Amino acid sequence: MNEMLINEKNFESARKKIRENLSREIIFCSDDDDLNRKIIEKEKISILLINLTKRKDFMKQRNSGFNHILAKIAKQNGVIIGINFDEIVESSGKNKSEILARVKQNILLCNKNKLKMKFITLKGNLRNIYDLKALGLILGMPTSMTKAL
User: Fold this and answer.
1) Is 11 in contact with 33 (CB distance < 8 Å)?
2) In angstroms, rounded to a whole number, what is the distance separating the alpha carbons of residues 125 and 130?
3) Residue 8: CB partners within 8 Å, gap ≥ 6?
4) Domain range summary for the chain, segments of one domain joined by +
5) DSSP 3-state assignment of 126?
6) 11 close to 40: Cβ distance less than 8 angstroms
7) Residues ≥6 apart with Cβ < 8 Å to 124
């Protein structure tokens, strides 16, 4: 596949890169939640990749960078939500358990809104497709979602 990863902090520079690469499948990721919302509202991207490593949880809720508002916008625009598999593989201890809990929360939101999810590997942590499906099922993905992996 012809994929293009865009990781920006500024909306204008992200918009420019997206419009230059319209013929490719665009994966967008940013640490800024407001920028993620702007991009999925106004630009045509294929996958929104949410980074979960550097987040700090709230008092009574996990900060997974994804909420019901983003889910509705993503559903309207046909955006697939990406899970960064490299973050899961490279973390350890308490950090890994927090990342998995955030991924599980995102899976529940995507299941409720009938969104598609996909595991994305950027650094070459490739796994067998059956391993990814098994991980998805353990984290709560329905079988219809794992078939699309």
Assistant:
1) no
2) 15
3) 14, 17, 28, 30, 35
4) 3-147
5) coil
6) no
7) none
Residues 6+ apart with CB under 8 A from 19: 43
- The answer on pLDDT for 148 being more than 80 is no
* DSSP codes of every residue in 37-98: HHHHHHS--SEEEEP-TT----SSS---S--HHHHHHHHHHTPEEEEEHHHHHH--THHHHH
pLDDT per residue as tens digits for the range 54-88:
888 888 888 898 999 999 999 999 999 999 998 99
Tokens of 19: 């419009």
For the domain spanning 3-147, the CATH number is 3.20.20.140
- Amino acid residing at 121: T
Q: Which two tokens stand for residue 35?
A: 């920028």
Rounded to 5°, angle at Cα 30 from 16 and 83: 120
